[in-house]
Amino acid sequence: MGPYLSQPKTEKKTTVGQGKSVIFAASEMQGWRNSMEDAHINRPDVLQDVSVFGVFDGHGGREVAYFVEKHFIDELLKNKNFKDQKFEDALKETFLKMDELLMTEEGQQEVITYQANESNDSYAGCTANVALIHKNTLYVANAGDSRSVLCRNNKNFDMSVDHKPDNPEEKSRIERAGGFVSDGRVNGNLNLSRALGDLEYKRDNKFRPNEQLIIALPDVKKTELGPEDKFILMGCDGVFETLNHQELLQHINTTLGNNPVTQELLSKAAEDLLDKLLAPDTSQGTGCDNMTTLIVYLKK
């Protein structure tokens, strides 16, 4: 059996909600893939003036994405820097905390319960792209190739950069850790240089967590939000394969039109976007991945 189904699964699981300053819609679709390995979080008003959203794209299995979905918010809320409103540090520490939890015996046992095909070994990982909004400040923490794009003046303002092994900074770290990059992959295997999980790439005791072949440490980008900012588009890499960022934002804006933005309208925008991106067949290899998209509309 190859990586693809004979027909895509186009059913969508969509979640909507709103808080004091945002309305959101999150929609996920399995598509042509044999299984669904994405997860996401959406917590408007997780605390007063703080909302958190995230997408986690699993690889090698769904289990790490599910684990992170379950634990990320709880660990963020416990974090001292989060309580002190040092959000950039809090996000970085919570990403690293996910790996710490995964390395425990309890974490390993929990991961096994999420596996589609239970075994005692997990070689899974996931990307993580998390947006935190505090009052008028947006922080996006990213590890991997899921993305956040801010619609600013109806143009794309990119809030994350993909972590690929060929990136010079990433490649030099991989080589310092004793690895190599071949065909855009770490040691010829993984086509990401940062991710949560993937613990087999993180076990060299000579190196600190941010010096391993694969690291969980995110980049964090910060921007002040203003009246020119309309919504944030978040998604796993499958969402960004066939249209560029500007085209994606245009598609959403066309759906929204000049109508008052409601949960129902955002839900339609998210679901219509997934239908637009799904490939008619698997011959090109793009538009065939699991797709999860999150649209966070910023109330005026």
TrEMBL record:
Membrane topology designation: Peripheral membrane protein
Record SMART domains: PP2C_SIG, PP2Cc
Top EC category: hydrolase
Transmembrane segments: none
GO molecular function annotations of the record: metal ion binding; protein serine/threonine phosphatase activity
UniProt xrefs under Pfam families: PP2C
Protein name (record): protein-serine/threonine phosphatase
